[in-house]
Amino acid sequence: MALDPAMKQSYDDNGFLVVERVFTDAELAPLRNRTDEIVRDPSTATKGVRVGRESETQQPKLGEKPPAGDPIRKFEGTVRFDPIFQSFARSPKLLELVRGLIGPRIKLFRDQMLLKPPGGQDKPTHQDQSYFRVKPMDGLVTAWVALDDATIDNGCMRYVPGSHKFGILEMQPDPERPVHHVPKTDGLNLAPEVACPVPAGSVIFHHGLTLHRSGVNNTETWRKALVLHFATAEAMSEIGPLNKEISMLIDS
Ligand SMILES: O=C(O)CCC(=O)C(=O)O
């Protein structure tokens, strides 16, 4: 699936690009089945995959135990360790789109599955590069792959068009949910946020500096997405240890 010049221009201007229905249900099936299996029984996760819970975003209160039935929020390192996710992340049509955005030689820098269970929490506004610090800053693009229809009600992605042009922003710590990197945006002349509901199988690409967030899941069903952070083959993080945990080399 080739990227046409208008798509590239839209990505460069807005810092994100929605490509609907890249994958069919049949192509998503192995990923969905494996994900459901791990959600049902986290002990089936391949060694190395980390299963994260909803309560982990909160600052632990002294002496307080995680709530019973704490739902699963994310898996980290699925592509790095699980062959089913690896084979999906190598889909030629996905890699062709990524190469069209950042250049011909790429790697998968990081990956995560973000699951948003019924009632699952929001992800506050952030820049992916705040976590990854990959140089060059334009050399990181996230492919957000919808495993389910993503809707306003279940917490679809929301983007601030053009916000990647403001560079990396200073963070303000959130004492309640310290895992989140919330940037200071006071005084910036930002465009209004755009909500991006998409059908399952769609991919939203976003620049590593684009401000984005997702809302609470106000439905009774899960909203799952595989999040693949691609980078150019030569790109390196300023945070040394991150370069030792690359999800997958592609064009070495
Ligand atoms: O899937 C979500 O709810 C948030 C994803 C996100 O923030 C990201 O892909 O960087």
Keywords:
6 helices; Jelly Rolls; 252 residues; binds 2-oxoglutaric acid; alpha+beta; 26% strand
Task: Give an account of the 3D structure.
The protein has a single domain (about 5-50, about 70-235), classed as q2cbj1_9rhob like domain (Jelly Rolls, Sandwich), CATH 2.60.120. The strands form four sheets. Strands 1, 2, 3, 4, 7, 12, 14 and 16 form an eight-stranded antiparallel sheet that branches. It has about 250 residues and is α+β, with helices and mostly antiparallel strands. It has helices spanning about 5-15, 25-40, 80, 85-90, 90-100, 130; strands at about 15-20, 50-55, 70-75, 105-115, 125, 135, 140-145, 155-160, 170, 180-185, 195, 205, 210-215, 225-230, 235, 250. Helix content is about 20%, strand content about 25%. The radius of gyration is 17 Å and the shape is globular. The chain contains six helices and 16 strands. The model has no long low-confidence stretch (mean pLDDT about 95). The chain binds 2-oxoglutaric acid. 2-oxoglutaric acid binds next to strand 7, strand 13 and strand 14. 2-oxoglutaric acid binds near residues 123 and 212.
Look at the structure and give the CATH class.
Mainly Beta
CATH evolutionary superfamily: q2cbj1_9rhob like domain
> What is the β-strand count?
16
In the residues, how many domains can be counted? 1
Mean pLDDT: 93
Oligomer: single chain
Q: Quick one: overall form?
A: globular
Topology-level CATH name: Jelly Rolls
What is the helix tally?
Answer: 6
Helical proportion, percent range: 10-25%
Biggest β-sheet, characterized? 8 strands, antiparallel
Class by alpha and beta content: alpha+beta
In terms of per-residue confidence, which ranges show pLDDT below 50 for 5 or more consecutive residues? Answer: none
Radius of gyration: 17 Å
Helices and strands, in order, run as: HEHEEHHHEEHEEEEEEEEEEE
Task: Specify the CATH architecture.
Answer: Sandwich
